[in-house]
Structures are given as C-alpha cells and as structure tokens.
Design goal:
This protein is α/β, with parallel strands linked by helices and 498 residues long. The chain has 19 helices and 24 strands. The strands form six sheets. The chain has a five-stranded parallel sheet, with helices on both faces. The protein has a five-stranded mixed sheet with strand order 8-9-12-10-11, sandwiched between helices.
C-alpha cells in the first residue's frame, strides 16, 4: 500500500462560505478528517459521510489530545495510505501549530500540503464591521497571541513593539484580557483607545462587546464573554457603527436545520440572509447493493420513455452512475423528463438537463401513459412516495440505499438541546419520517417548540400525522421562497406574534 498524504487545511473563522475553493476540493476526497474545537458545526456537517472524523480539540484547561499524540495520529493515518485532512479553525499557520505538524511529518517523509484559510484575525473583525486598516485611520496592524504573560505560552512577545501598531488584534485573548489590557496601557496605548471583543465571529453565535481600552475589561465581564473571542484595539473600532453589516441581515444569529445531506440548493438563499445552515440527515446514503436494475432500466430508455427525478439524491446518484459508465445526459435523449419546481429541478438544471414537466405537487401530476414507460429515480422512501402518488405503473430501480447511523441521531439530539436550532425546513415528506424515526417520543415533542417549515402541502400532512404542526406551508417551492418563509416565521416569533 502506498503512503497517503496530509493536508493542513484552514477552515476559516466559522462561516462555511469562507472556506476556500481548494479547501472544499480537498475535503471532498478526504479519508480522515482530524479537526479542532474551533471548526464550526456548519462546516463539520458538510464533510463527506465516508470520511472518518477524529476530534482533536483543545480548549483552555482541557486537551482531548496533546500535540505529540496528534502528530503521531496524522503520521499513522498517512502511512496507512489515507488522504488525511488536519482541519483547523482560521489559518493553520496563524497560532494553529500547523508549522509543528508540518515539520514533524516532513521530517518523517510524509507528503504535506498546506491550504491557507481566512484567519480570524481579519475575518472576525470584518464580520463585526471593523476593518483592520483604513485610510487616514490605520496604516498597520499586528496580530498577537493572547496566550502570553500569566498563561506562559508566549512569554517572548515584545508588547512594546506590538502596541505601536495602529490596530492590535489579539487572538485567544479573552481568558487573559485583564493582563493584556494592562500591558497595552503600560506600553503607551491611551485608555480612550476604542476596543472590541468578538466571540464566535462569523457564526450564528457571534457576539460583540464594544468599549475603550479603559472600559473593555469591565464590558467583557458584564457580558460574561468567554472564549473563543478576538480582541481588537485601535481607532478602526470606532468605524463599526457605520460599517456593521453581518448583524443587519434578517436571519443573522439564526441556525436553520436541513435534515438532508449536503449540498442543497436550499442553503444558499438562507445563508445569503445571514442564517447558519446545518445539514444533518438522520440516515446515511450509499450505493445500492446492486446497480443491475438501474443499468437495465438505463439501457432500455428511448423516445417512449419518461424519467421522474424524485429528489436531489436521485439526480446525484444517477449522474454518478452515468459517469462510472462513461456516459452523460445524452442517455436521456428523447425521454420526457419530470422533476419538481424546487431543489430537484435546480440540481437537474445544474447538470445541464431541463425538465419537460415541472410537478408542484406529485399527487396533482397527470402523466401520459400511452405507450410510455416511466422510471422513477430517488432515495428509496421518496421514490416509493412519488411512485405511489403518480398512480401509474412505474419502474423504481434503486440508485442508493439508506441506513440509520448513531452519530447522526446523536447530532440531531444535540441540536435539539445544547446547541438548538431556530427552524427546521422539510422539503420532502420522507424527511419528516426519517427525523421522527431517529428520535424517541420525548425528543419528538421537543420538535413542537421549533418552527417547522413545510415546503409543500404533502410535507404538512406528514407533519400533522406525526403530531407536529407546521409553522408555515410554503406557497412556492423555490429555494428563495423557502428562505423568505423562514425569515417571516422567525420575525413573527421574535416580535411575539401569533
């Protein structure tokens, strides 16, 4: 077995939209992902299902693994022939100890590649509306670790030089903020210098506290601000009232759950409005036990055939199989193509195929059965639902299989308790059944306290059958219509409306 390689990848400060294109590409082919405490949930939920996940987080006073163990783990997995991603919050070389890991691995002949990330030193202030430089205000900035002084991890910091920068950005500085503030004052910074502390920047949990160098310590204490947070000191902080933008988006600080695998076309419009979108499917999708039935159905397609794409999974699995067979969308030449007018149709269009018929409601669709054979493609439960709604004889060759996975159910329970979501969007009836089956009765009752958004009437029916009332039934199934519905529902909740 040939040896694998290790990618040191920066995950950015939290917003998955700040992942670089290269980071996304590397993660897509990862066999093993070793991740830190600062890697956001929304990013972890988009890791490939087949990848082994290993938590190696370090928090103040609590290290899951020490650095020597992490180094050995990366080496072991790489020597086993795996593609290993060491996923770090921010940038791997900005106080991420990525350099130590790279030196350990290269010294032992392991191939290492670095994928830089958006450092929280710049990204977090930017999301709070604070530029680290600004013409006529700040022409320089310094980034420094807060793990210095009494903490003792970086006693060599020359604070007199750091304090001379127009803007000082301190990472990991909240636990030690009293000492840091006092040190900057002793090094000549005036107590009226604007200062800000930003916790969980770029995520739905972003919290900003503003003051001056003389008051920021008290403000941090009043807000009970805890790590992880970034401390920014300098006149650029005074620009925040004019430049703040992230918290002005209608879904800022809202976490929306999509109980399906990524990617989903529903995510982008929600994220554009400021939501943190989490993808957690209760079940895991994999290849079917056999492709024989699909290959047979594919070979029999012709001008008298019709194909119904029942969901996004059906599209993805179908095209993956076509690629394996060295074929493409020309396999559907002459066929009548049917899809919904929402996510499935959008994904199909991205593959270069435009549906001949758009189904807003499957049970309202009338298919031409004269001398036409119909093939329905989708996840097994969605495939069955759609085939039953159509009321005609359909072929339903399996294109994927599904199974329950414990970690997914555990992740869902976490989102209902310790890290709650603010809304759940269901685009298919099967998604409701999968979620309910993954939870116990008490956990299902917890769902009643969360706004549930039904993308169509058939979803609402299944919700009500499960004893759950949808907060809204979306009139249009486009991703934009769903995002608008979520915004409206949460606005009503926030103002205390009915």
């Amino acid at each position: 077995m040939s040896e694998g390689s290790v990618y040191l990848v920066g995950a950015g400060p939290g917003d998955p939209g700040l992942l670089t294109v290269k980071a996304v590409q590397v993660l897509a082919r990862a066999d093993v992902v070793v991740y830190d405490n600062l890697v956001a949930d929304a990013i972890l939920d988009r890791l490939p299902a087949r990848a082994e996940r290993i938590y190696a987080g370090k928090e103040a006073g609590s290290h899951t693994m020490n650095q020597a163990v992490i180094n050995a783990l990366l080496e072991e997995r790489a020597r086993g022939g795996h593609t290993v991603v060491r996923l770090k919050g921010g940038d791997p070389f900005v106080f991420g100890r990525g350099g130590e890991e790279a030196m350990h691995l290269t010294a032992r002949g392991i191939r290492v590649e670095v994928v830089p990330g958006v450092t929280s030193a710049i990204g977090v202030p930017a999301y709070a509306g604070i530029p680290v430089t600004h013409r006529n205000v700040a022409a320089s900035f310094a980034v420094v670790t807060g793990r210095a002084g009494p903490v003792g991890e970086a006693a060599e910091v020359e604070w007199a030089r750091i304090a001379g920068a127009d803007t000082v950005v301190v990472l990991m500085g909240i636990a030690n903020h009293d000492h840091l503030v006092q040190t900057l004052l002793e090094c000549g910074r005036h107590q009226d210098t604007p200062a800000a502390a930003i916790r969980w920047g770029t995520t739905a949990r972003q919290q900003t506290v503003v003051g001056t160098l003389g008051t920021i310590a008290a403000r941090i204490a009043e807000a009970a601000l805890r790590p992880p947070a970034v401390l920014v000191v300098g006149d650029v902080v005074s620009l925040m009232p004019k430049m703040a933008w992230a918290d002005r988006r209608p879904l800022f600080a809202r976490r929306v759950l999509l109980p399906l695998d990524p990617p989903s076309t529903l995510a982008e419009p929600l994220e554009r409005l400021g939501a943190e979108v989490l993808h957690v499917a209760p079940t895991e999708r994999s290849e079917p036990a056999s492709w024989d039935a699909f290959d047979l159905a594919l070979g029999a397609l012709g001008p008298s055939s019709g194909i119904v794409f029942a969901d996004e999974a059906g599209v993805e699995a179908c095209f993956e199989r076509l690629y394996h067979l060295r074929r493409d969308a020309r396999a559907f030449s002459g066929c009548h193509i049917v899809s919904d007018g929402g996510p499935t149709g959008r994904v199909l269009a991205e593959r270069g195929v435009r549906a001949d018929t758009i189904a807003e409601q499957w049970d309202h669709l009338t298919l031409d059965t004269r001398d036409r054979r119909w093939v329905v493609l989708g996840s097994p439960d969605v495939q069955r639902d759609v085939a039953a709604c159509l009321g005609v004889v359909c072929e339903t060759p399996p294109v994927c299989s599904q199974r329950s996975v414990k970690w997914r159910a555990d992740r869902l329970r976490e989102l209902l308790t310790s890290r709650p979501v603010h809304a759940i969007v269901f685009s298919e009836p099967a998604q409701v059944r999968r979620l309910v089956s993954a939870l116990d009765p008490e956990e299902c009752r917890t769902l009643a306290r969360i706004p549930l958004v039904a993308a169509r009437q058939s979803v609402a029916i299944v919700l009500r059958d499960a004893g759950l009332e949808p907060a809204v039934i979306v009139g249009g199934r486009s991703p934009e219509a769903v995002a608008e519905a979520v915004t409206a529902v949460l606005a009503v909740r926030e103002t205390g409306g009915a």
